[in-house]
Specification:
The protein is of the alpha+beta class and about 250 residues long. About 60% of the residues lie in helices and about 15% in strands. It is built from nine helices and five strands, in the order ααββααβαββαααα. The radius of gyration is 18 Å and the shape is globular.
Length: about 250
């Protein structure tokens, strides 16, 4: 059971989730706001990403900042890590101190270079199926012990419930198109990162920061800037990613 103090702290966040449900016209907008609110609620988290896998490889549909996006991407590239473990097992996965954690060694090496020291990955399960995982990252050890963990679990539960509502309210074709767009955006950005890394001879994290700066300076969406880079280099528009398949349960 959560204390009254913890519940009162989370109450405004629950209200914001409900407001997001009413105000967000698109699934991707809703998911983007969920990860941002999560970082505010679960201190001392410094980043949050949401991983989804449906009939294909896992990918990030929303990230609060580039650290969270890169942390997720490292796991996809290594094919291991806490968020993937949570997604596959349906269990909460906590990493108190990555410096002393021998699991997922391929992920560990690169995550530490990003400054990630602890993390908490929470499965998002709807109708008995784990559709995704909410991934919280911190730059200090034991960031998600005790009160922070309870807040994270409670917020993930509410976020999952809100996600279930928005998915059930949306028509299948609309959800399919919007989640496919989110996946396509991620694919275009990843292609542009490769181009920038080759041109600037920099790391993926540095390339992501350069893209973000260009997006802010030009007041354009990150995907549009990425698409322009790819078109300039290849002479062709970016190729779309594979479609995102959404299954529905039938009684």
């Amino acid at each position: 059971m959560m204390s009254e103090t913890a519940e009162s702290h989370l109450a405004p966040a629950y209200g914001r989730l409900l407001a997001l449900l009413a105000d967000s016209p698109h699934v991707d907008v809703f998911l983007d706001q969920v990860v941002r609110v999560a970082v505010e609620v679960v201190s001392p988290a410094v980043g949050c990403g949401m991983t989804v896998r449906r009939d294909g490889p896992a990918f990030t549909v929303a990230a609060s900042n580039e650290l969270a996006a890169q942390a997720d991407e490292i796991q996809y590239g290594a094919d291991e890590g806490p968020c993937l473990h949570a997604l596959h097992s349906g269990q909460i996965v906590e990493v108190p101190d990555l410096r002393r954690d021998e699991r997922w060694r391929r992920y560990r090496e690169h995550a530490l270079k990003l400054g990630i020291v602890s993390s908490l990955s929470l499965p998002m399960t709807i109708d008995g199926e784990t559709l995704g995982a909410l991934n919280l990252y911190a730059t200090e050890p034991n960031a998600f012990a005790d009160r922070a963990r309870r807040r994270a679990v409670a917020f993930a539960e509410q976020g999952t419930a809100a996600l279930a509502v928005i998915l059930r309210q949306a028509e299948q074709a609309l959800v399919h198109r919007q989640l496919t767009d989110a996946m396509a955006s991620r694919s275009v950005i990843d292609q542009a990162l490769g181009v920038v890394m080759g041109q600037q001879r920099c790391t993926a994290t540095e390339a992501f920061a350069l893209l973000r700066q260009a997006s802010q300076h030009r007041n354009r969406k990150l995907r549009d800037v990425a698409a322009e880079i790819i078109t300039q280099v290849t002479g062709e528009t970016p190729q779309p990613a594979s479609e995102f398949v959404v299954s529905r349960n039938h009684d």
